[in-house]
Amino acid sequence: MSSTGLFVTLEGVDGCGKTTQATLLVEDFQNKGREVVRLREPGGTRISEKIRLFVLDPQYDEMCDECELLLYEAARAQLVREVVQPALERGAVVVCDRFYDSTFAYQAAARGLPANVVSMANSLGSCGLAPDLTLVFDLDPDEALERATHEATDRVEGEGTEFQRKVRNGYLKLSQDDPNRVHVVDAVGSVEVVHARVRKVLAECLGGSWS
Q: What is the pLDDT of residues 136-168, one digit of tens each?
């Protein structure tokens, strides 16, 4: 593990368990003596958290797809400039729950916005920054959505299972198109079993210290 910054993102359909795995991943890096900055999208800054409250609020069901896309990108740009870039520049590990792959999966694959439009928006919203490693936690959308909505349902979760199936297909396409960066992790099983799979991917991608 070098002292240079490392940007790791976690992706998947709502309820796939990535947030729990992010907690364990942060602990892994901290145990190796690294400074870790844990973030979520949208969110992570004062401005971005305000956007999160708005974009996920079920009362705004009239929100058009283009508005949704631009809100996510605005939150992302603020996060990158204010938090992610400075952390990477000082050599920290950044672990982020969602990044621009979510935008492709949700707004292009599921919403149906043109992929080239979403790609251009992602380039602007990410300020040209790309993750070093992306883990996609793959779980059947029926099971995942049941987990995600057992207490409350936000505006995106309320789109239902078929929408989440399109999201999942979007993620699988990303893993095929960019296999060096995007790695699918089977999210079926206990937290410990899934985390063992995460550690295996890290060992393969980051070196033998993860074995």
A: 999 999 888 887 676 668 788 778 889 999 999
List phi, psi (to 5°) of 118.
Answer: -65, -40
Tokens of 193: 């079993």
H or E segment to which residue 145 belongs? helix 141-148
| Alpha carbons within 13 A on the beta-carbon side of 65 | 14
Question: Looking at the domain assignment, is residue 90 inside a domain?
Answer: yes
Percent of the chain scoring above 70 in pLDDT: 95
Structure tokens given for 50? 């305000």
56 with 48: CB under 8 angstroms? no
pTM, rounded to two decimals: 0.93
Domain that holds residue 51: 6-205
